[in-house]
Amino acid sequence: MDTLTMENTSRITPKEKGDSLELAVEHIFSVAGFKTSRNVWIAKYEIDVVAEVGDRKVIVECKNYQNGSLTIRNLIHQWHSKNQIIKAHKIIIALVGLVVKDSDYALAAEFDIELWSQDDISEMFNLSLKPDELRKKLIEKIDFRPITIAERYRDDITYLVIKPLLSIYDIPEEGLFRLFNRWLRAHILTELQMTETNASERSNLIELFEGSKTKKRFLNLVKKKRKEVEYWDTVYEQLKSHDVLSRERQDYYLSHMNDLLCEYADQKIFFRSDDYMARIRKLISSRLQNALLMGQFCSFTTSAMNNHVKVFFEEEGYVGIYITGISEAESNVLNWIMTSQCSPQRNENGEIISYRWWCSSLNDATEKLYRIFTEYYEIGEKNRLKDEQIK
Known about the structure:
The protein is α+β, with helices and mostly antiparallel strands. Helices cover 50% and strands 19% of the residues. The chain has 14 helices and 13 strands. The strands form three sheets. Strands 11-12-10-9-8-13 form a six-stranded antiparallel beta sheet. It has a five-stranded mixed beta sheet with strand order 1-2-3-4-5, with helices on both faces. It has a two-stranded antiparallel sheet with strand order 6-7.
């Protein structure tokens, strides 16, 4: 396959054309050393191609149109909106059979989205026999926006902070630093994949990050693996006080470690602030985002409630709020609080088991849940919000 010629025959169905483009795009990333997968569901959205390099995720929407009916601007806006939830590090829209205008490229650039034309795809496909050149071109073309390690793992840190607040589960220190160590390693390795290193630099990195994992005991004859907290402290001390790498590089990695610790500390402070209502809104919003990405549902309750407020995520961004154990009169009151009409959900015997309210987005669901728990159930410090789905 020297070039993409998927329009050569009218006998190919639209689905076959789409599949052919997806396979070509996946092939490009796979040959370049990315971890790839096709037709993956993330946060209830189907993704044509997912390509990962280190801890960065690229998602590709493939469109093979021959009639020119697709509005590229609408597609850009759609995927910018979707990525507010998916949170990929780069969105690429691969287009075949359409002319991409300069105005389309300009709009995509505003949202940090890449548009690939048929010529772009063919050029990269033809580089498949030169994987190193292809990888270099891909990294340059994708042009990942620089992000700090705190930005990269902010949502993960939020979950670590809200998990004990919404459940009976605490995060032990060893477990916390196991994640910190893993994220530090992944972030640094990802950065190294996008730059060139020499044998000496790689040897020093091995000495720093692998040599610090063990300590000598019993007259230096036996090595014992360090605990996660001790390993973190040892690496930190090595970077601060020893000359393993260049001082600039060591200070840079120290900033990674400080950023993780500061992000965790700042979030803990926020979720223990005096503004209880602001905390509740953020708590609900963060949990919904986390549950959606993890493929879970939520089952909110409080110590004063005998029922549950369950949240299920449907396709294309819709959210369903189901409240169990309430009467029709209570559902009517809640209609006014949520300013929307509910519908009863019945079991096979025709009995009402819950009432459902539809939400158009995560923000809409957050607002409705906030009203439920502050205006109807009136939660507070002594009647805390819980999610029984957190394990």
